[in-house]
Amino acid sequence: MNVRALALISVLSGTALFASTADGVKALEKKDYATAYRELRAGADKGDPIAEVTLGHMYARGLGVERDMPAAMDLYHRAAEQGNAQGEFAMGLIYAKGWGVEQDYAKASYWYQQAANQGDTYAQRQIAALYEDGYGVEQDYKAAAHYYELAARKGMARAQFGYAQLLEKGKGVKRDESEAFKWYREAAEQGFAPAQEHLGAMYAAGTGVEANPAQAYFWSVLAADRKERAAERRIATIEARLSAEDAAKLRASARAWKPAFGRK
Question: Burial code of 233-262, b = ≥16 C-beta within 10 A, e = fewer?
């Protein structure tokens, strides 16, 4: 989560930045860490949650200060206790990863849930994954599908992929291969390699879409270039169904392809 995103979130949520916090955010964008620290510390000392979270990022990443996860966690926690979604998400991430604390999925799920309830896209994707796998919460595919879909509709590629997988398998939602194809495609267009691999497989087999060897080859080449092993194994089989000229054109198109903007 970058500082521009934090500032934008504060504006969209109607949260006025303290003057010192605004100056600190600007300084951090310019990598003027000394000014950023001074101004953000002033904001944090006044209880501004945006300053607390941003200063927490500085400590977590060692930006202009010695890396200090306990200090970062304290600042994140202070922001989270005020109901700041970015602070809540950061607390969830710390417990999920075990950064400076014992890994604890139950605590991670609690904080992710708080942030997800406020509409935080990243938290929605993370809590969906915990519900899918049953980490820190009782396994619940319906809840997983719900939160994946929320994040997917806001353009997050990993959530689109997760939602597509549940649709394809019929877990927590009615099985719908056509709808799964749609969401794999959304994620693939953003450059998410696992989705590109699945898209290639679906075009090859005619699952959820009419079989199309050219499209199967195109997406498999893209995925294989990103080290997706299943796509690498599929290429030779599909290539046998294409002319050498068509295969060459598709390879060139795949390697010239650029992803659409989005959130991975």
Answer: ebbeebbeebeeeebeebbeebeeeeeeeb
